[in-house]
Write a structure and sequence with these properties.
Length: 89
């Protein structure tokens, strides 16, 4: 498996859409970035937009019932809809 990086965007209390996202973690070229944390769906959209220009090879969102579900990929190692068995730290 390629390198896996977790990007935690979860929040503890209600927030407004203009609340900034946390800084991106270091992302090695071609890594799978897993976005995770309890947050509104629009915050996930903001995170995916931020990751679009990153060196990530693929992006997944973490579902505690399934694992990391790949939502975008630029590498044959991952395909959209693929579930990757990882657990956030």
């Amino acid at each position: 498996m390629e390198s896996v990086v977790f990007y935690h965007i979860g929040v503890e209390s209600p927030i407004a859409p203009d609340e900034p996202l946390p800084p991106l973690p270091p992302i090695p070229r071609g890594a799978l970035v897993v976005v995770e944390g309890r947050a509104p769906i629009w915050r996930y959209g903001l995170a995916l937009h931020r990751l679009h220009g990153s060196p990530a090879g693929a992006i997944a969102v973490f579902d505690p019932r399934l694992g990391a579900v790949v939502v975008a990929s630029h590498t044959p190692a991952y395909r959209p809809g693929q579930v990757v068995d990882v657990t956030p730290p």
